[in-house]
Specification:
Number of strands: 4
Strand order of the largest sheet: 2-3-1-4
Distance between the termini: 20 Å
Largest sheet: 4 strands, antiparallel
Number of helices: 11
């Protein structure tokens, strides 16, 4: 229920960014929603309707490749965004296109970022980007920015290159915000030194789908025998693992370092 609420809030933020910042200045957003804005500006069809129709093929692909829960949340996001685009009046908040592209990009990026953190997506190129990040540990916002080059080119030819540059600013701002919020591509290595090795090992394996390497050790000063547990996790899992370690052994020594690259059998979709 909490995730569903977050999906709805994120989708509303995206719609507000479109109708109050992007559309009044002929600035396109990223992905298929940007194409929907473009078609909505040059055809009599409503942007919300176009956004829904363009997303249908990718929703079908996502159902096959990404699972029912992810696609359920994505469908909710697409429906809420499309409906809100239809209901919210297109009203410019700022008369400055550059300011609108920056603030619209930031607001849209926050919306997309929190939707992704809630295990959904806003549809369109997000689905393609999530498919790619399941294969490689790449920043999702950067992938989206790369996929959106075609949107910028279309914007330049149809609305002029000033509009294209403002679109590029909006996409860049959105991508940076998404990477700040959506951090599952960031991996952390934990070295846990504890006197309760077996108990902590059991709890970690029960609660997290991660491999653990266990080594014997002893304190140089105290001479006490200890266990050293090493594991690699995503940044999303850090808060929960810290809580679990605290509950099991408050005296455990934990060294947390950011991992540049992982090779071998690492479950990237967990």
């Amino acid at each position: 229920m909490v995730h569903l609420f977050i999906i709805i809030i994120g989708s509303l933020l995206i719609s507000v960014a479109f109708n109050l910042f992007f559309i009044p200045h002929q600035i396109l957003s990223s992905g298929l929603s940007g194409i929907a804005i473009m078609l909505g500006l040059i055809t009599p069809f409503d942007t919300g309707l176009l956004n829904f129709v363009l997303n249908l093929p990718l929703l079908i692909i996502g159902t096959i490749k990404l699972g029912k829960r992810f696609i359920f949340f994505t469908i909710i996001s697409v429906l809420v965004t499309s409906l809100a685009l239809y209901v919210i009046p297109v009203t410019p908040i700022s008369s400055q296109p550059i300011l609108s592209s920056i603030f619209g990009g930031v607001m849209g990026g926050i919306g997309v970022g929190i939707i992704l953190r809630a295990s959904g997506s806003s549809g369109g190129f997000d689905i393609l980007a999530v498919l790619l990040t399941k294969k490689k540990d790449l920043p999702l916002g950067s992938i989206l920015s790369g996929l959106n080059a075609i949107v910028v080119i279309f914007s330049g030819f149809i609305f002029g290159w000033d509009s294209a540059l403002n679109t590029l600013i909006g996409i860049y701002a959105s991508g940076k915000v998404i990477d700040t919020i959506h951090t599952s591509h960031i991996k952390l290595t934990l070295m846990i030194v504890t006197k309760k090795g077996e108990e902590l090992q059991k709890k970690l394996l029960q609660n997290f789908f991660r491999g653990i390497t266990i080594m014997d050790g002893y304190g140089a000063y105290t001479g006490e025998r200890k266990r050293i547990l090493m594991t690699v996790i995503t940044r999303y899992q850090l808060t929960e693992i810290k809580r679990l370690i605290n509950e099991t052994d408050p005296q455990a020594f934990v060294n947390i370092t950011e991992t540049k690259e992982v090779m071998g059998s690492f479950a990237r979709n967990k």
